[in-house]
Design brief:
174 residues; mainly alpha; 6 helices
Length: 174
């Protein structure tokens, strides 16, 4: 019994059409795989660069001054300065919006900003409540979503850091 008939099989000339069609299929498949890999590498590089840019903004002198103003106000038992609280809150809400819309990788942001986003959510809790009372419950909604995602990712990763009411803002070094 013959499973494959090799009689009359040609690689060049009449009867070789099957071979060239198969060879074209293999070449196209390899090309598509290579293009996909290049696009994936470029996308990954851009995501890392975006997170690096936002990290540089978080570490900027302006951000340090606003965070310091918040800590000084908390230490002195005063209200959080609106401009400083808004600057820090808008930074994290902007990150969250971009992440929620799919422009920034949430997992990559978790590695770079998980603890600071959660800590600042806790630190600014009185400020956030006041802003929401004045401007509506949707204010900083994306940041709340991002903190929730970070908590989920942290729990899956076995991270034991919890930023809740028992956590003291004076312990933060962010």
């Amino acid at each position: 019994m013959t499973f494959i008939n090799t009689r009359g099989m040609g690689f060049i000339g009449p009867g070789s059409e099957w071979f060239w069609a198969a060879l074209q299929f293999v070449a196209l498949t390899i090309t598509f795989i290579a293009i996909y890999r290049q696009l994936r590498i470029a996308r990954s590089a851009r995501a890392v660069e975006q997170v690096r840019e936002y990290t540089a903004r978080y570490e900027s002198e302006r951000m340090h001054r606003h965070r310091l103003a918040i800590f000084v106000a908390l230490r002195n038992g005063m209200e959080i300065p609106p401009f400083a609280g808004g600057y820090v809150g808008d930074y994290f809400d902007g990150l969250a919006t971009l992440s929620r819309k799919g422009h920034l990788d949430t997992q990559l942001l978790w590695y770079a900003h998980s603890h600071s986003a959660q800590a600042w959510w806790t630190i600014l809790d009185p400020f956030i409540k006041g802003v929401r009372a004045e401007f509506g419950a949707k204010t900083y909604a994306d940041w709340a979503w991002l903190v929730g995602r970070f908590v989920q990712i942290s729990l899956r990763a076995g991270d034991s850091v919890a930023f809740d009411a028992a956590w003291s803002p004076t312990t933060s070094r962010s």
